[in-house]
């Protein structure tokens, strides 16, 4: 499987950092790209009270985990293709293994499992403590192809405009 074109992991990390910085909610939440090793991406979502879904029990909202997995898997798609193209989420399944607890950063990684002509298949996981997964996601992304990807998309992603 060809992944990430000829660009370095450092170039991909910078590009994906640009990507999460243009999405208002990931920017506001401080999502950080820790590593990009195409077709695998690792990110960290720093803890803050806005992530709470149940303040009485100190539990992270499930939507936060879904957002993180969608962003992780979508980022893996970008660097998992030979050349970046627009690939909206087709579907995302989230399996919640245990509650995510207040006061702890969320860490996650995602990777490309398979690429077909029309769909990119991904998997991801989120944890707060190593080896103790909070949630797993299976994301499928529809390939719109070069014809439906705006001209200059890759250049903008890599800050080459």
From TrEMBL:
All copies of domain Thioesterase, residue ranges: 58-134
Keywords: Hydrolase
Pfam families linked to this entry: 4HBT
Keyword Electron transport appears in the UniProt entry: no
CDD domains xref list: PaaI_thioesterase
NCBIfam families (alphabetical): unchar_dom_1 (TIGR00369)
Identification of the protein by name: PaaI family thioesterase
Species in which this protein is naturally found: Franzmannia qiaohouensis
Lineage of origin: Bacteria, Pseudomonadati, Pseudomonadota, Gammaproteobacteria, Oceanospirillales
């Amino acid at each position: 499987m060809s992944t990430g074109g000829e660009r370095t992991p450092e170039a991909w990390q910078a590009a994906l950092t640009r990507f999460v910085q243009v999405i208002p909610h990931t920017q506001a939440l401080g999502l950080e790209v820790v590593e990009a090793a195409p077709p695998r991406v690792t990110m960290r979502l720093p803890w803050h009270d806005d992530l709470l879904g149940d303040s009485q029990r100190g539990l992270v909202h499930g939507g936060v985990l879904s957002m993180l997995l969608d962003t992780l898997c979508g980022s893996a798609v970008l660097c998992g293709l030979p050349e970046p193209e627009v690939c909206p989420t087709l579907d995302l399944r989230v399996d919640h293994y245990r509650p995510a607890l207040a006061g702890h950063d969320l860490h996650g990684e995602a990777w490309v499992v398979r690429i077909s002509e029309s769909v990119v298949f991904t998997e991801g996981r989120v944890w707060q403590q190593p080896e103790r997964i909070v949630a797993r996601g299976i994301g499928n992304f529809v390939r719109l192809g070069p014809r439906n990807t705006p001209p200059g998309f890759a250049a903008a992603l890599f800050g080459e405009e």
